[in-house]
Hints:
Layout: H1 2-16, H2 27-33, E1 43-50, E2 60-64, E3 67-72, E4 76-83, E5 88-93, E6 98-103, E7 110-118, E8 125-131, H3 133-140, E9 146-147
Parallel strand pairs: 1-7, 4-9
Antiparallel strand pairs: 1-4, 2-3, 2-5, 5-6, 7-8
Amino acid sequence: xxxxxxxxxxxxxxxxxxxxxxxxxxxxxxxxxxxxxxxxxxxxxxxxxxxxxxxxxxxxxxxxxxxxxxxxxxxxxxxxxxxxxxxxxxxxxxxxxxxxxxxxxxxxxxxxxxxxxxxxxxxxxxxxxxxxxxxxxxxxxxxxxxxxxxxxxxx
Length: 155
């Protein structure tokens, strides 16, 4: 019985504690992204951030239309401008399959998507949810939330 309890405590500590790290952008790039600039003509701004309490030690890949945006960790975000002329699909890895979120966007607006970690049978999975502009700006604006460098995914 004690071994079961000890194992549960160790697994919980791994899922709830620790920190995963990803390559971060410069302080200047981070500050610029947090001004929430109006996107260029014909484009929309996409912010993808993670702020899960569970799974801080996990890193999860995020893809836009099948192309790697990057690998997330707790309290990081990605920002990029994307064409507004078409619908997009944002995807993240989960325990058994990808989780997809369809994005219908308009030119000149910023959109915010929260990636969250959810408990799985073997490892933590990830999900995506679009949030309001005010909620996304509130989280991304926090000093401890940092802009990550794009383009690195573990395939």
